[in-house]
Structure formats: C-alpha cells, structure tokens
Amino acid sequence: MSKKVPLFIDGEFIQSTTDQWIDVTNPATQEVIAQAPVATLDEMQRAVASAKKAFLTWKEVPVSERARVMMRYQALLKEHHDEIATILASETGKTFDDAKGDVWRGIEVVEHAANIPSLLMGETVENVARGIDSYSYTQPLGVCAGITPFNFPAMIPLWMFPLAIACGNTFILKPSEQDPLTPTKLVELFEQAGAPKGVLQVIHGGKEQVDFLLDEPAIKAISFVGSVPVGQYIYRRGTENMKRVQAFAGAKNHCVIMPDANKSQVISNLVGASVGAAGQRCMAISVALFVGSAREWIPEVAAELAKVKPGAWNDTNAAYGPLISPQAKQRVENFISQGVTEGAELLVDGRNCEVEGYPNGNWVGPTMFSGVTTDMEIYKNEIFGPVLCAMEVDSLDHALAVVNANPYGNGTSIFTASGAAARKYQHEVEVGQVGINIPIPVPLPFFSFTGWKGSFFGDLHAYGKQAVRFYSETKTITARWYESDIADVSGPNMTIHLK
Ligand code: NAD
C-alpha cells in the first residue's frame, strides 16, 4: 500500500477523512509512491480557524525571535538537504544534483527571511510640521495562502511561507498534487525549527481547494505560481474578492546570440538552459535567436544537444530526468509533431526516447528545431519540455523586435562580447529578468523574482524587499507631543518619586 500524504492542521500531521485520493507517481517508473488527499471542507475550515487564532499571538512575537525560527529552519534544511533532495527526485524525476539545486535555492530564501528585522524597518522624518514627527511601521496582514506548481516543490513553497511568516503572518500552503511529499518534509522541519502551532497549515487537493482559499474572507493575500490560464483565473477571482494577489505564470524565454559571442560558452550554456530539468523550468531557454553570422553555429548546437542523455533520478550520468507525467510527455510529443507539420526543420528529434531499465518513464529526448517563425504553434506556446526552437534574425534590433512582441516576459539572455550591445539589449528589452552571458538569470533572494507581461499578474513580486511589502501593510503615524504637558521634574512630587 502506498503512503497516504498527511494534511498539516493546527500543528498536527493528520490523515484526511476524504474519500478522494490522488496518486503520486515516480515519473521514471509509474510506480505509485504515495496518495495525496483532496482535503474536505471541514478540514480546510479548521486550517483557517487555526491560522486565524495563531495570527493573534504570532504577530506579537518579537521580530528577532521570528528571525531565530528562520535561522534554525535554515540549519535544519541544510542538515537534511540530501534527504529532501532524495524525496524530491523520487516524485519529480529530477536528477539528484538538480533536486539539490531546487532545495538550495529555497534555503537561500530562508536565509533572507532570517534578516527580517532590517527588512521590516520603516521610515521616519522628524519635524514634518513644527513639533510633529512622522514614522511608519510595517505590520503583517493576517492569514496568507500559497498555491504552488509541480516543477519546484521545494524552492517555490520556500519563496512563500518563510517570508510571509517572518513578517508576522500565518500561512496556508496548497502544494501541487503531483509532488506533495517534498513540501510535507519542508513542513516537518519547519515545526522542528520551533514554529508555533498554527502559523503554517498545509491542505492538499486541486481546483476545489484553491477556490476555497480564493473565496475565504479570512485570507488576505494569495501567492500563486503555475500556468497562465490558472494564474489569470486566480488573479481575477482573488482580486474580485478584494484580496492581494501575486500570480507567477508561464514563459517563453529567448536567448539572443550575437556573432561576437564566445561560441563554446554559447553552445554549452544553451544546451543546459534549454533541455536541463527536461525543459520544465519557467526560466528555461526555449527560443534561440541567432543574429547574423551566428546562424552558422546552429548545426554545432544541434550536434551537442543530440549528445545529451536523459536518465533516472538515481543515475549520476543523467543530464535530466523524465517529464512529470505521461500526459505531459504526450503534450510535448504532440508539439514536436506539430512543429514538423508547420514546416520547421527538426534537427534533433526527442520522440520515442528510451532509457534502459526504465521502459515506463515519461522520457523525451533533447529536441531542436531550426527555421522556426513567430506564427508557428511551437513558437507561440510554452512547450514545457526539452525543446529548443532556433530562429535567425539580421540584427540586434530585429531580435529585440521579436522578443518584445512576445506576450511573455519572464526571462531572457544575450550572449555577446560587446558591452554596448548588452547595454542596448538590457535597456530596451521588455522582459523582467535579463542575463548577460548568463542563460538563466534567476535573481538571488535579496533581489526579487521580477517576471513581466503575460508571465506575471500583480504588482509586487516574489522574495526580496517586494515580497516583504506584499506580505505586509504600512502604517504611518503622525505624532505631536505638547511640551506644556511635560511634568515639572523640579516639583516636590517628582523629587519624592525620584527617591
Ligand atoms: P498548474 O497551473 O497546472 O498548477 C499550479 C497549481 O494550481 C497547482 O497547485 C494546481 O493544483 C493548481 N491548479 C491547477 N488547475 C487549477 C484550476 N483550474 N483552478 C485552480 N487551481 C488549479 O501548473 P503546473 O503544471 O503545476 O506548473 C507548471 C507551470 O508553472 C508552467 O507554466 C511554468 O512556466 C509555471 N511556472 C512559473 C514560474 C514563474 O515564476 N513564473 C515558476 C515555476 C513554474
């Protein structure tokens, strides 16, 4: 019998009373390794009640103590890094190294959350009028909630609950139903770090559970990461219900390759950024724009890509793992077939990929098209698989026009030896995260994750100072104290008092 994933409500791991369970599979074998519950209404209401109650005491806990919980949590995550990565690899199919990277990028956010006292500092101005001072405080919102995708089951929950809780909020997490074991381990360690009962709750399920969070009046802010249609839906419904919402969505990330770039750097970076993690990264490079004579490198990129071998989570030579599900594999293979029909040239074909010893894995081999045009479905859609689309353009201006016309704006890169070309690109490109000779420019947690356009719905982004603002309210105080009210310290009463 496979393991039943618990809910975490009111400080306890409990088994759901639901009669609906979702299979969690190992994507390399299809073995059912666990079952995630579809939380009942009663369970979700208990989670909200507990989070509301815990907020009343947690917001009064001194900020330095809240920071210390994050310090202990960071140490525990590091101590259990390999164990979390093993769980993560078994349910996502990621290679062990990639799984460790997923956990590590989350640990870095917890480190940032441990700096919460200075992040919460407000502003002060003395004498805004004669004898009047103004100052501001940053106060928590209340109960916040997070809905996370399958592709980073450690990093993305850790983008959310540590900072929200460090700010003094309580938090309800609804992880992806496809890989709930990693978040369960993260929560177990959070409890061990000394987080008081009720500050974090975990419910499992899908749309019905998300709708509950979107409609529950006690929840003040919703963080979401996932696909575009779901992100748009969550943003609309959440804001209609007068909640604060940040929704991070899909992407189509372009890499611009100038002819003066370092060719070997371009090839190795492009290969890793396009098919690494089976292309299941919102910051994967899925379109390479070869400018001018750089187009001559396309066959060499294809030759290097063709050498890349996927493999199982426990194969140390594997470059990447399987796709998350048979449906995801089918979807990617359909796109590859569609690209051929649309007239793109298939230089490397990842369909019908086999990995020895794992006949049932959701394998798709590295895939590359050339001659892709912007009207093709393989260009217009986020394929979310190990597929690179190569396009040829005449100039940097032409490349900029293509990238800026694309509805997404998560990440982009330019490879060049020219500072002037890089400067022009970073300045004019309408994308929120830009790499210069760096293929996947994910900002570290003291910055924020700043996707633009169709890749993000909301105002304030994940982690960094922006997340602190997202998870808090600013209270501005204007104060006057009348000097005439100061007690007469020389009077007889005061003298007695001072004795
Ligand atoms: P998804 O949208 O299918 O699911 C994300 C979450 O939403 C899950 O918890 C799921 O249970 C819930 N959900 C699914 N359908 C729903 C519905 N109809 N109503 C309400 N909730 C629903 O996304 P996924 O497949 O898990 O993740 C991959 C997507 O996430 C890709 O598009 C990827 O680009 C995107 N992503 C974006 C970022 C970013 O920072 N921009 C980061 C990681 C992943």
From TrEMBL:
Its EC number is 1.2.1.27. One of its GO terms (biological process) is thymine catabolic process. Pfam families: Aldedh. It comes from the Bacteria. This is methylmalonate-semialdehyde dehydrogenase (CoA acylating). InterPro entries: Ald_DH/histidinol_DH (IPR016161), Ald_DH_C (IPR016163), Ald_DH_CS_CYS (IPR016160), Ald_DH_N (IPR016162), Aldehyde_DH_dom (IPR015590), MeMal-semiAld_DH (IPR010061). One of its GO terms (molecular function) is methylmalonate-semialdehyde dehydrogenase (acylating, NAD) activity.
